[in-house]
Amino acid sequence: MNADPSELQKFGDMAHHWWDPESEFRPLHEINPLRLDWIDSLFPLQGKVVLDVGCGGGLLSEGMAARGAQVTGIDLGEKALSVAKLHLHESGLNVDYRLISAEAMALEMPAQFDAVTCLEMLEHVPDPASIVKACATLVKPGGHVFFSTLNRNPKSYLLSIIGAEYLLRMLPRGTHDYAKFIKPSELARHCRSNDLALGELTGLTYNPLTRAYALSKDTDVNYLMHTRRHV
């Protein structure tokens, strides 16, 4: 199984806070509109069939469903999925949540989705290349795959771990493991080897003075990558 038991435990222990915008998931709540707008601008979601890999408590999944997509969300965290399913009763949205790995889903439903999203997940798994391969298998020829993760360099370590986890305390200590961060060149190589053509690369930055996130050309820390499967 391409999952770290300690990572599943860590996020499972926090799962009941997933939809609390003032909790340790506050950064996800704040970047979610930016992520949604970015995806929707490159691939209009209305009426599309979309898979959200590593959906967690369902923030992105529900956001895409609210924009008219038919969404399936998959994760290996049972507690997070339980929270995601419960929140549907509050939101009234329709998302099909499943406890299954990306690799198993790829065997079951190859080339079935118009788009696949895999955001803030690759830096938490033992074998990110396997996830990229599964995402490429799951999307239809000509379909879109969206990734986001953390770059690996001294600036990223300083801002995302020392700054975010220790100084600003935006995230619980131990949320990220620097050794698992992925350079854009590395992710791009995984994509190319799986017939995913590179599209747009954009950065996500945080201003501690205004406490606001923004999309930018600065990919030194957080970045999003848009790819498209060859026809």
UniProtKB/TrEMBL annotation:
Matching InterPro entries: Methyltransf_11 (IPR013216), SAM-dependent_MTases_sf (IPR029063), UbiG_MeTrfase (IPR010233)
Keywords attached to this entry: Methyltransferase, S-adenosyl-L-methionine, Transferase, Ubiquinone biosynthesis
Similarity section: Belongs to the methyltransferase superfamily. UbiG/COQ3 family.
Protein name as catalogued: Ubiquinone biosynthesis O-methyltransferase
Gene Ontology molecular function, alphabetical: 2-polyprenyl-6-hydroxyphenol methylase activity; 3-demethylubiquinol 3-O-methyltransferase activity; polyprenyldihydroxybenzoate methyltransferase activity
EC numbers: 2.1.1.222, 2.1.1.64
Function: O-methyltransferase that catalyzes the 2 O-methylation steps in the ubiquinone biosynthetic pathway.
Provenance organism: Denitromonas halophila
Residues binding S-adenosyl-L-methionine, per UniProt: R35, G54, D75, L119
Stored Pfam families: Methyltransf_11
SUPFAM superfamilies reported for this sequence: S-adenosyl-L-methionine-dependent methyltransferases (SSF53335)
Gene: ubiG
Catalytic activity: a 3-demethylubiquinol + S-adenosyl-L-methionine = a ubiquinol + S-adenosyl-L-homocysteine + H(+); a 3-(all-trans-polyprenyl)benzene-1,2-diol + S-adenosyl-L-methionine = a 2-methoxy-6-(all-trans-polyprenyl)phenol + S-adenosyl-L-homocysteine + H(+)
NCBIfam families, sorted: UbiG (TIGR01983)
Ranges of residues in domain Methyltransferase type: 51-147
Pathway: Cofactor biosynthesis; ubiquinone biosynthesis
Any GO BP annotation: methylation
Domain of life: Bacteria
